[in-house]
Amino acid sequence: MNKSENNVAKSYAIIGFGHIGKALAKAFARKGIEVSVATTHDPESFASEAAAIGAGINPTTLAEAVEADVIFLAVRFESHPDVAKALPDWQGKIIVDVTNAYGVPPEKLGGLPSAKFVARAFTGGKLVKGFNHLGAAILARDPAVHGGRRVVFMASDDDGAAAEIDALAEKLGFAPVKLGGLSAGGLLVQAHGNTWGQLIFQDLVKFK
Ligand SMILES: NC(=O)c1ccc[n+]([C@@H]2O[C@H](COP(=O)([O-])OP(=O)(O)OC[C@H]3O[C@@H](n4cnc5c(N)ncnc54)[C@H](OP(=O)(O)O)[C@@H]3O)[C@@H](O)[C@H]2O)c1
């Protein structure tokens, strides 16, 4: 039985501590959920920025960060293969793909949706495309707005992983909306060459 089936607390990491990495870190800090953050640099070099976001934002090395159960990929699309090399096998891990392949010619992706292309690099891992449709400045804000919750879209070919990241999104205060698999759902929330998917930049709020 794995940790998720066993309902044991998960560990989280955000790879990339730029605009989106920091926006995600703020969401974790707001709810007091610990998360590791890593870049290509020595953790000391961004420790004060992490501390300014919250006590539970733990700067670490990439090698340590990939030990987490759930890894948010918040690097430029072009950098994802470098992150993927950090482990020979991503078995048992969930990768949340927050990248947007804007400006990447579709032929470079072999005709695949960008999330499927990323998934191929993370051998054995379960990939969820999510949290990528909002600009960093909006994602960084409290998702509790006007009495509702800001929507984030999720797509995955793995129902278990999708359910887990949905639950995490709820814990972070968002209203997750499932779009289905990576081919259908993923395409609605990705960049395709110089074209944005239909749901990108839709700042929606769910009331109930
Ligand atoms: N900005 C937005 O509004 C927005 C919105 C939605 C989605 N996105 C997507 O989110 C991703 C990140 O965008 P961003 O705007 O946050 O970019 P960014 O500000 O340039 O940040 C990228 C981060 O990735 C780190 N990084 C690069 N290569 C790495 C590697 N091999 N291992 C570990 N860390 C690495 C960089 O750190 P060092 O270079 O210091 O190592 C930096 O902290 C992109 O794919 C983008 O398309 C962005």
Please explain how this structure is put together.
This protein has 208 residues and is of the alpha/beta class. It has helices at 3-6, 19-30, 47-53, 62-65, 80-84, 114-121, 136-139, 159-171, 185-188, and strands at 12-15, 35-38, 57-59, 70-73, 94-97, 126-130, 144-145, 148-156, 175-178, 191-192, 195-196, 205-206. The strands form two sheets. Strands 1, 2, 3, 4, 5, 6, 7, 8, 9 and 12 form a ten-stranded mixed beta sheet that branches. Strand 10 (191-192) and strand 11 (195-196) form a beta hairpin. It is globular, with a radius of gyration of 16 Å. Mean pLDDT is 94; it is low at 1-6. The structure holds NADP nicotinamide-adenine-dinucleotide phosphate (NAP). NADP nicotinamide-adenine-dinucleotide phosphate (NAP) is lined by residues 15-21, 38-41, 62, 74-77, 79, 82-83, 98-100, 132, 135-136.
What's the shape?
A: globular
Overall radius of gyration: 16 Å
Overall pLDDT metric: 94
* Tally of contiguous helical segments: 9
Alpha-beta classification:
alpha/beta
Secondary-structure element pattern, one letter each? HEHEHEHEHEHEHEEHEHEEE
Largest sheet report: 10 strands, mixed
- Report the sheet-strand fraction: 15-25%
Q: Which percent range fits the helix content?
A: 25-40%
Q: Would you identify the regions where 5 or more consecutive residues have pLDDT less than 50?
A: 1-6
Distance between the termini: 35 Å
Give the distinct bound molecules. NADP nicotinamide-adenine-dinucleotide phosphate
Extended strand count: 12
